[in-house]
Amino acid sequence: MLTLTENAQTVITGIVDGAQAPQTGGIRISQDLEGSGLNVAVADQPEGDDQVVESAGAKVFLDPQAAIALDDKVLDASAQPDGRVDFAIGQQE
To answer: What is the chain's alpha carbon radius of gyration, rounded to the nearest angstrom?
Structure first.
């Protein structure tokens, strides 16, 4: 199952809070239509078939294809001074 670094937990919580999402909110990671990349968006709640990863209050909803692709991965994130967020995916040890 996908794990989150402490940085990712902090950044995700900040993104969701900044979007004024409800308590059930998180970020949703889904496979793009071509199947070659991933999309990230704030979501008010998971969709019916999403896998939910929760760590230190940060919630990540994964569509079925993203859940398979990220099953053995670690998600890291960093916020840039200009407001941009960079996500990085690494292999779990």
So the answer is: 12
Owning domain of residue 28 = 3-91
27, 81 Cβ separation under 8 angstroms: no
CA gap 34, 9 in Å, rounded: 28
SS3 73: strand
Could you report the per-residue pLDDT of 7-33, keeping only the tens digit for each? 999 999 999 999 999 999 999 999 988
CATH number of 58's domain:
2.60.300.12
Structure tokens given for 66: 């993203």
Q: How many domains does the chain have?
A: 1
User: 32: which 2 tokens?
Assistant: 């793009």
Q: In what order do the strands lie in the sheet with 38-43?
A: 38-43, 26-31, 58-62, 51-55
